[in-house]
Structure formats: C-alpha cells, structure tokens
Protein: Cobalamin biosynthesis protein
Amino acid sequence: MRIECIAFTANGVRLAQRLAEFFRDGGDVCTVSAPEKYAENGVAALGSLADWTARSFGQADALIFVSACGIAVRSVAPHLRSKFTDPAVVAVDDCGRFAIPLVSGHVGGANALARRIAAAIGAQAAVTTATDGNDVFAVDTWAADQGFLVVRPNAAKAVSAALLNGEPVGFHSDFPVEGTLPKGIVPAKEGKVGIRISLTYEETFQTTCWLLPRILTLGIGCKRGTEPIKIQKAVDSTLQGKYLYMESVQNVASIDKKCDEIGLLEFCKANCLVCNFFSAEQLTRAKGRFTGSAFVQNTVGVDNVCERAAVLGSGGALLVGKQVFSGVTVAVAAAPLVIRF
Structure:
C-alpha cells in the first residue's frame, strides 16, 4: 500500500513520523509532508496543499491528514468521485487521540486503516459507517477483500439497506461455497434483494448485487508484427461471444517466443495486465485436450499456443477454446475459485 501523510504542526509531524515508521515496518510505502519549517529528517517540504492533495489523491492508496477533519474534507472534496475508486482518507488529531475514516471506509479500506492507526498509537478509531456500527455484513468490503468487482454499486447499497432493516438477502454463487453465510444472508436464487457471484450477468433477484470474480486468463497467439488494436478486437470478440467481461481477466499468457512482441506487450499495458510467457516444452506439458495444428507445431515447437498458455497461466481449466482471427488466436481459461466465509 502507498500511503501519503501530511501534518501541519510540530506535534502532528512527530506523530506522522511515528505512523510512517509503523507502516514501513509493515511493508507499506509511506511518505510524510509538512510545511517547510518542519521539513527535515525525511519530511518533505509542502508547497501548495491543493497541489499535494491532487497529486496524492491520484497516486496513493491512502491519505492520512494529521489535522482537523475540516482541513481534510475541504482538501479532498474537489477530487471525490466514487467510493469504489477514491483512495482511503483518514484524519488523525495531532494529539493522537482519534483516527477518523472520512472517505472510502469499506472498499478503499479507510475503516481498516483507521483501526491500524489506532492500534499503532493507542488512539480510538471513530468508525461511523452503519454496517460496522451495527455489526452487519458489508458486501462491498467483503468483495474488495476477495478481489471481486461490484458491478452495480447501487445494488450493494440495497444489500446494506436490507440487512440494516432486518430483511433477508439472498445469495447465489456459480462457484463452491465454504463456511457459514453471514447473518442475514440466505441461500436463494430469486427474491427482492440478493448477491450473485458469477462470470456472466443474469438478473435473478429484483435487485441483484452482481460480484464479478477476476479469475480469467487470456491465452494469446499472434503473428509477428500484429498491431495491438487487432489483438484487442480479437479479445473483445472472444469475450463478448461468450458473455464474458474484460474486468474478469487477471492476466495474459503466451509462448516465450512472443516475449518481445510489441503489439502483445502494448495490449497488456493498455489493459494493465501482466503477460506470462511459457516455453514450448512447458506448453507441451499442459494438461487437457487442445486443438492441435501441424503448422503451429512446425513453427514454434508445440501444437497449440493460446489454449495451452491459457491453462498454464490460470492454473485452471479451459473455458473458451481456440478462437481464430486474422493473425491472432485467443483462448480463455478460468482459475479455480472457492467462495469462503
């Protein structure tokens, strides 16, 4: 986690330095900024508060204001977009008595961050979100912890509202489930409000909170010099043809002969995906039934690239077999997934 701290008083700077040391010891990246007169011992000189906030809001996972809440609120207000995208924002008074999550309490992790701060400095975490205060299951927090995308944020609000009102919320998963469902969550495939975990969309409840797992691997083969736009179009056509979504893709896989293929690398960069490369020998050892090609065998030393790479890259099973486009082949595999509570 990248954390940016800011303080404005001598006490606040000392407290921010304590917090920075605590977070760094835990493996996080943490910087401290303060007015120029306090800029020493690793503390960066603060120029404009507005500039610091704009920069930090765009690049950090969390912002900690060792200051009054009002300063923090006014600073971040112009940058707020959505609790599903905004970084966590926590205010801590410079005496170290309270840690107050202000923005992105659940998905962004501000509530959890406030509790970490409180534990580090002996403060009280002042968590005000209704689900936390009433010990109610927070589907958005849980989804974020699992790495699932909440496709319709308003549906997550409907889940919380139902639980807070004592109404049951249905739960249906296309994947195996282990453990006991949280209080108020009941197995169901239809009803007023429900949670559905699936790679494809279906409105099974009147209000369906659809959680999209990120478990897919794209196996891609392509001719030398293929442009990234051609790869993107082939991928989009493959996914859309099976009612799958780019948001479910966790990585890309191909043969090591393509490790310097500019079009493939640019496609991955544009979609923020890592590409794993496998040798022909590794691809040959992939388990499953694959669409063999004598031409591919003679060219790269293995009878199929995209399907075998997808399976190896995912650690799971082939979901979509080889799809052939002009100069591009695409396959999709899904990593094993068990839903645990």
